[in-house]
Amino acid sequence: MKSETIKKDFPVFAHHPDLVYLDSAATALKPRTVIEQEREYLEEYPANISRGLYTLSERATFEYERSREAVALWIGALKKEEIIFTKGTTESLNLLAYSLERSTTKDDEILVTTMDHHANFLPWQALAERAGATFRALPVSRSGEIDLETLETSVSARTKIFAFPWISNVSGTIAPVQDIVSVVRKRSPEAIIILDAAQAAAHLPIDVSTLGVDFLAFSAHKCFGPTGVGVLWGRSALLEALPPFLYGGDMVESASVEKSFFKRPPQRFEAGTPNISGVIAFRAAIEYIEHLGKESIRAHESHLVEVAREKLRTEIEGVELLGSSHPTKHSNLVSFTIPGLHAHDAAEWLANKNICVRAGAHCTHPFHTSLGIPATIRFSFSIYNYESDINRALVSLKEAIEYYRLAKKGEKEKQRDL
Ligand SMILES: Cc1ncc(COP(=O)(O)O)c(C=O)c1O
Hints:
Blueprint: H1 3-7, H2 12-15, E1 20-21, H3 32-44, H4 55-75, E2 83-86, H5 89-99, E3 109-113, H6 122-131, E4 134-138, H7 148-154, E5 159-165, H8 177-187, E6 192-196, H9 208-211, E7 215-219, E8 230-234, H10 236-241, E9 252-254, E10 261-262, H11 276-292, H12 294-315, E11 320-321, E12 333-337, H13 343-351, E13 355-356, E14 358-360, H14 365-371, E15 376-380, H15 387-417
Parallel strand pairs: 1-13, 3-4, 3-5, 5-6, 6-7
Antiparallel strand pairs: 2-8, 7-8, 9-10, 11-12, 12-15, 14-15
């Protein structure tokens, strides 16, 4: 994959030729085709969907539904009605947690993992509180792996919901989804299994017909698509049985004072005006990924992670690398700590050199607490990155280490002189 050719697809690099963007796990940059598709809607047929009988609205509805078909095909869904458009992974998971409330009781247990992003942790904790159910988090290894034996002893017939991440946004470790599902099903055949695919969708092939989970959520913006668009996929039979989460326009068959009747999925879950331009443009993002091929994307990113891990390990004294060191188990990111250099100081130093990285607890407080680390620095790669980006980031990191070392030394000497 030639980075200079790829970079031409992303207009941001024309505006910032010096940019080193190592934060694609937060959000991916947007290719021109996505921007163009969004612009086309806004300029040529900016009407609402499903309501108007005039041409502009019919075209908007047609393009919006085409995106639903494209997503269904992309992830191996049986039919497009299994695809619900939301604002993002966070809304997809909250939708589910609210819709499952009526069927959750105090006898049930909800299980997540300690490495889940808050978006797949807090909605389930809140649901447990509302329903009086038990909430537990499965401990994971330091490298972000779920131990199947621990999982087996943690799941019981009481386990009503099990939610876990396909790829942790901190460790970058890829979970063996099918193995995990079969352990959960063995112990609790009726459990509802929810997969947070926010960090996986742009990098791994998805086939919901073989994964074995019941629901899957991800965001378009991490897949080169616009912000404000998410997907919730669910098995038809389960979606049909769920009540709505948001109530409003375009989701009822009929409304009256006595009783209202709701549409079938997906409309039942898409009340109000959605992000029409975003959903339409998301199709261009999917086409872009398919054009490059997920295998090539993964090979490119995996190579960069290998290089970054090796350089960090050999060039930065005392660095602690999180995640699995096994190439088949890590995704497109590497998180780490450096003794004597706070993650935020590092990120700020790099930002001043036009290098964008993420630092902090990455919306995973329970995971950081379990690791005993308050904050980590994260490099996350995409197709527009190259080894030269890693080299530049490392040069800057070394400068930051030296600067803070000298600053601390100076401070100590000042204290001694007092
Ligand atoms: C693993 C994981 N889950 C959920 C989310 C939430 O995604 P969004 O903010 O797009 O709703 C993120 C975002 O970083 C994530 O990394």
